[in-house]
Fold this sequence. Notes:
By secondary structure, this protein is α/β, with parallel strands linked by helices. It is 44% helix and 8% strand. It has two domains: 10-207 and 250-286, Rossmann fold (3-Layer(aba) Sandwich); 211-244, no CATH class.
Amino acid sequence: MTAQPRLPDFLIVGAMKAGTTSLSRQLAAHPGIHMPDREVHFFDREDLFRRGHGWYAAHLTAEMAESSTAVLLGEKTPAYSYLPHCAARIHDCVPAAKLVWIFREPVWRTFSNYLHARKKGVDLRSFPAALAAEAAGSEDNPLRCYVARSRYAEQVKRFLDYFPREAMHFLLFEDLVRHPEVELGRLTQFLGVAPLAAKPPQRHANRTRMPFSVTSMYLARRLGGPRGLVFRTAAVLNGLLPGRMPELDEESAAGLRETFAPLNAELAGITGLDLGVWQGERGAGSAP
């Protein structure tokens, strides 16, 4: 039997391509925490949100056994941090929930987001062309708003309109990769559970791997949608051989660093995070 439906105690709200999958799996390894295996998307998808809070509670606990020893229930959906309507919806549903944020050096997060979109058949353009379209204001597809999703300070301020600062915990992807025990210890203390007794599991669980033919993925998405048989078949076939991974060109990187510099300073002021690791970041943060 499954546990009684209940609403979450905490949510990992973002950011996309910043280690949310790894962080979720590390927390799910804690005996006192239960998290669904997949992203829920309750607050950002209209079709799911219309099902109501009761459906949300039942969905969160569908995989949770009645005999579970978990004392905390969480979920992670990084779309929540970016889409403007989510903060108010989350507050209306679970006003006492704790919010967890994980940030990645924004140039590499932006590029990783672009690679993810290419892998999923969302974008055929070069990275400079995609950036130019977004800068010109001609990009209306939220799946291709790569720079906007890296404007972390703006997203945090939006949530601060609804949640107190003390209800939020902030960490960096780069710190989690390098010092997982330390970062997870701080996080479990914030959540109010004992530290993880065992070594944390896989640190970077959602690396982007390019399909053999990006064009075929793009066409399959348009023929059958992202959940259709055509797309799923194309994904399987494209996974048989590795594709060419685009490289981040220095001109694009330099322009992005200039764009993000004032936003990073604002983020540091809001969160108290030391962002020194982002200066000239070419190590763990550069992985797709």
